[in-house]
Amino acid sequence: MSEHRCASYRQNTGGGLYAWEFEQDGVELEVRVNGPVIFNDNEMLLHAAVDGLCLVYTFENQISQHVAEGRLVRVLEDWCPPYSGYHLYYPSRRQHTAAFTLLVDALRYRG
């Protein structure tokens, strides 16, 4: 990665820079990249990639249209296993508040 211009992402929760995560054949790597820019906004990160400023590490669903239309190309695809998303676990035998039920319904929505 040191030979490429890579964008870093500053996490809003803790303020630290996100380490890029890779996995292949059971080998897991976390890579801290040094690049010309640091973003804390996914939209700006995407624009930097589309504009050719740098390589970015992001979720596939955020760039799939750009890849399909030829504006972006995936790299290191064999080091990026599919990610099924986050999971929410909660007790099933409990009465939930209306707000919690709305949250669960919103998270289930895949429109």
Automatic annotation (TrEMBL):
Highest rank taxon of the organism: Bacteria
Signal peptide annotation: none
One Pfam family of this chain: LysR_substrate
Family: Belongs to the LysR transcriptional regulatory family.
GO terms, biological process: DNA-templated transcription
Source organism (scientific name): Mesorhizobium muleiense
GO MF annotation, one: DNA-binding transcription factor activity
Descriptive protein name: LysR substrate binding domain-containing protein
Residue ranges of domain LysR substrate-binding in the record: 3-108
